[in-house]
Structures are given as structure tokens and as C-alpha cells.
Design goal:
119 residues, alpha+beta, Wheat Germ Agglutinin (Isolectin 2), domain 1, Dihydrolipoamide Transferase, two-stranded antiparallel ribbon, 3 helices, 4 strands, rod-shaped
């Protein structure tokens, strides 16, 4: 049994022997669409026009969240860097980055009478 495939132009809904699947790339992304020869010609012209503008433009990055502010130590008057430095001198294991355990903070406060827990 034979089957007949009829392609329909995705833009104007026309059918015809000239309607074909057309692949195109824009901004490093691939797309596909079914178009007649006339609509394919219009697409190519539009892409060429857009390419002129893109070639003369500069890309603008969307604003991101940026870098996080350095996390504050859980003790008033000291920074996490100071807590890490103290821990290193005492032989207490603490990660170079990331969360410092509550046990390390507690030991730091005991060793530093002027340090107050940050509520």
C-alpha cells in the first residue's frame, strides 16, 4: 500500500509540490519549518537582513545575580576568614569555602571571649 505525504506551508497553509522541510540556523540554534519556495525565499531574505544588524551589533549580557556577598560569620566582630584562619592554627578541619559547622563556631567563641554569637 502506498502513502502520499502532503506538506503544508507552516506560514500560509498552502499545499503544493514546492512545499518542503527547510532547515535554518540563527544565533547558533537550528530550526526547521515547512515552507513553499516563495516563503523560503522570504525567510532567507529576512535572515540576511537580521544578519546585517547582528554583525553590526554588540551582544549585551543579561544582568545576573552576580557574585554573592561574602557570608558573614555567625559571631559578631569576626569574619568567616578569621574563623577559618583560627581553625587552621588549632588543627580544626574546616572547608576552604562553604558552610562552617556550628561546632567550629562554638569552639571559636569559647576561645575568643569577646566573640558573641550572632543571633
Amino acid at each position: 500500500m502506498a502513502e502520499k505525504v502532503i506538506r503544508v506551508d507552516d506560514i500560509d497553509g498552502s499545499e503544493g509540490g514546492d512545499v518542503a522541510r527547510r532547515d535554518f540556523e540563527i544565533l547558533d540554534r537550528m530550526f526547521t519549518i515547512d515552507l513553499s519556495d516563495d516563503n523560503h525565499k522570504r525567510l532567507i531574505e529576512a535572515l540576511e537582513t537580521v544578519a546585517l544588524y547582528i554583525d553590526k551589533s554588540a551582544e549585551v549580557k543579561r544582568p545576573g545575580k552576580g557574585r554573592k556577598a561574602p557570608s558573614q560569620a555567625k559571631v559578631k566582630g569576626y569574619t568567616n576568614a578569621e574563623v577559618r584562619e583560627w581553625a587552621g592554627r588549632k588543627g580544626v578541619e574546616v572547608p576552604e569555602r562553604g558552610k562552617i559547622s556550628d561546632e567550629v563556631y562554638a569552639a571559636f567563641i569559647i576561645d575568643h571571649p569577646d566573640a558573641k554569637p550572632d543571633a
